[in-house]
Amino acid sequence: MRACQACFAASTWTANASPPESSPANCDFGHGYSAQTWPTTAWVDSISGLLAVYQDSSDADAEEIEDCIQRDWGIFSLSPEHVRAFLSSAVPGHRLLAEGVRARLKTAGGETAGTDHLTSWSAFSEEIRKRNRYFPKTVPDLSLLAQVLGDSVCRIDVDIDLYRGRLFEGEAPTMSEMGAPPAEKAAAGRANPVGIPYLYLAYSRETCLYEARATTLSKLAVGRFQPTRQLSVLNLADIEPPDFFSLFEVESIEAQISRAAYHRYLTSLGEELRKPIRSSDRLTDYIPTQYLCEMAKSIGLDGVLYSSSLDPAGRNLVLFDVQSCECVAEPEIIEVTAVSLNWHMVPSL
Description:
Layout: E1 2-4, E2 23-27, E3 32-39, H1 44-51, E4 54-56, H2 65-73, H3 80-90, E5 103-105, H4 117-130, H5 142-150, E6 153-156, E7 162-167, E8 199-202, H6 205-211, E9 219-227, E10 231-235, H7 244-250, H8 253-273, H9 287-298, E11 303-307, E12 315-319, E13 325-327, E14 332-335
Parallel strand pairs: 10-11
Antiparallel strand pairs: 1-3, 2-3, 4-5, 6-10, 7-9, 8-12, 9-13, 9-14, 11-12
Helix pairs in contact: 2-3
C-alpha cells in the first residue's frame, strides 16, 4: 500500500518523516493522486520501533493498538481503520496487529507489572478526596511530577492581553475591582484552595462570557489585563505529542516509553484541570487539581495555562500571584442579547 504526506498529521511531518525516494501515485488511504507517495514499508524501521514500546495485554485499560498510537504520538490524520491498515502493511504479521489483540504501553525497563504514572495519579486523587487528606499513602513520585511539569513550561510576555470577566447587577465594577477577591472572600476553585486567592484570566472576551456562564440579558464587566513581569507558566493547553520520527532514531526503547508516558500524564492533568465547575460539585472534587497547582507553584512557576471546557477554542490562565497581572483599562460593559443552546440525547442506563 502507498501513503502520501496527507496521511500524517501536519505537526508530525518533519524533515525526518519523509523517506528519500517517492513516486507519483494514488494514495491508498483515500487522499487521491499525489505527486509524492511512498510504500508503507518505507517506514518499517520507525513503525517496528514504535510497536516495540507496547505489548499485548488483557488489562482493563488495554486498547486497540491504533488507539494507543494515536493517543500517545498523534502521528496520523487517518481513521482508526486506516491507521491499522497502514501499520499492518508496514509491518505485516506483527502480533499486536492480530485480530482481537489489545495493547498497553510498557513501563520503563520493559516490565508491565506495577502501576504506571497515570494510574498512580488517579489513585492519589481518589485517596486525598475520600480517605486521607494530609498524609496520603499513594503520594505520586514528586521528582517525576516536577520533571513532567518542568518539561511543559511556556513564557507569557508583558505585552500579552488577557481578560477577566465579572457578572454584575446594578453598579458596574471599577478598574480597581476587577482583580482577584481578597483572601477572606476567596472560595475554593478548580485551581485555588479556599482562602488562597488566585487570578483567573482568559485569552479572549468571548471565553470570559463562556466561563462566567452568562445568560440572556446578563451584564458582564470585562477588564483587560497585562502581566507586570515576564511569567513562566505550566502549559497544559497545548501539549504536543513526542516527535515520533526523530525520537526513534536517537533514543532507547526505555526513553521512548517514558516520553509516551509523560505525554499521557500531562494530557490527563490538563483534562482534569479543564473540567467545568458544576453546581453539583463538592469542594473535595477540586483537591487533586489544587494539589497540582500547588506543586507547580512549589517548583517556581507563576501559573497554569489550560483549555476552556466551555469555549472549545478558548484558553484560560490562572496565576498564583494576584499582583503578577494588572488591569490596564477601564472595564468594557457587555450585555448578552442571546444565548444558543446545543444538546444531545443521553441513552437510558
